[in-house]
Design brief:
The chain is built from three helices and eight strands, in the order ββααββββαββ. It is an alpha+beta fold and 159 residues long. The longest helix has 14 residues, at 30-43.
Length: 159
């Protein structure tokens, strides 16, 4: 699969609530922090505890708060879409995915390797990234036993 193939899409904003961690790719922390975030999110049944879930319930991984670029610190939030976030449990936070132009990649194959491989291709590309917000969508296709798939959206500057 060509990890650099993508389409350009303008998306409206959306709201996500979940568990968030600060992490970094350059020092390898993300290799521990991101799986730990998944473990916390799933083991605490955070989806079931999230009020005002958007329908259908879809999981998101949101990358925001970049200090520089993909080598600097950023916030990683694993959560689900919500219609509002005024009654969240104390351990959950909300982040808005802003309306902007995104490069849309599809990670297909063995997970999480396919997602990691797609990101490696993005990091090595010359995409005009905004480093405002990027996100992944984990819907029913993620659990497809024959052909799992995850959408990756990377914020880019408009040409």
């Amino acid at each position: 699969m060509d990890d650099t193939a993508y389409t350009v899409e303008k998306l409206s904003s959306r709201l996500v609530a979940g568990i968030e961690r600060r992490t970094c790719n350059a020092d390898g922390r993300s290799l521990k922090d991101i799986p730990a975030c998944w473990q916390d999110y799933l083991s605490t049944k955070a989806v079931a505890r999230t009020p005002d879930r958007a329908k259908p319930t879809v999981m998101y991984a949101v990358y925001s708060g970049y200090t520089t670029d993909w080598t600097g610190e950023y916030s990683y939030l694993l959560g689900c879409g919500v219609t509002k976030a005024d009654k969240l449990p104390k351990d959950l936070v909300a982040r808005e995915i802003p309306a902007q132009t995104y490069a849309h990649f599809k990670a297909q194959g063995q997970m999480p390797d396919a997602v990691v491989g797609t990101w490696a291709g993005i990091w090595g590309s010359d995409l005009p990234r905004t480093y405002v917000c990027d996100f992944e969508i984990y819907d029913a296709r993620f659990t497809d036993k024959n052909k799992p798939e995850v959408d990756i959206y990377v914020g880019i500057k408009e040409e």
